[in-house]
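S1.2 Input.
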Amino acid sequence: MKTKKHAHWMRTAALLSALILTVTLTACKKEAAQPPKTPEPAPTEQTTPPGQTTPPGQAGQTTPGQGGEAAKPPEEAPIKMGQLQYSELERTTVATTAKTASVPTYYLPERGASDDKIDQMGTSAKLLTLKYYKMTIMESPEEIKPSGKVESKQEVKLNNGTGQWITAGGQATLHLKLDKTYIALSSDKLSQADLQTVAESLANLK
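S1.3 Output.
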């Protein structure tokens, strides 16, 4: 009797073990059949340097003047023409210098840039050079020839005669003759129209 009960218990235990094993294998197969889950990427955050804030909609924009074109330099104020004044000492010095340069008849302009004055005076063989702050005037009893290769010539009518613009070495010079004196005017400050005004105001001083 005991032997039959023992055999029955052994069969029951074997069936339970087989059932547990079957359930375990089934669960493992289901897990193996499911594809592995891909972890979602973490959201990317944009960082702003400490102390700075980025207004909405302005990210990636450049501020004019910082990454674009360089600021343009301020334009120079236009030169005003006016009456030129000469002291008695300046007139005497010009007369002495002209005599040294063998220029018997010389001229001084009565009009020019309103704040212009004679800065330097120079002489060479029959050539008087008057350097103002904004222009240069050369006078001679002989024809004054351009110092470089002549690039262009243009005749111009003046109130006191006929002049000629001669461009040599990139520098335009106004040439004219008053009585027996040849005169050449040049400037990198005054316009050609202003320099013609200066030429028309040349006054004879002996």
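S1.4 Remarks. Residues 43-52, 62-66 have pLDDT under 50 and may be disordered.
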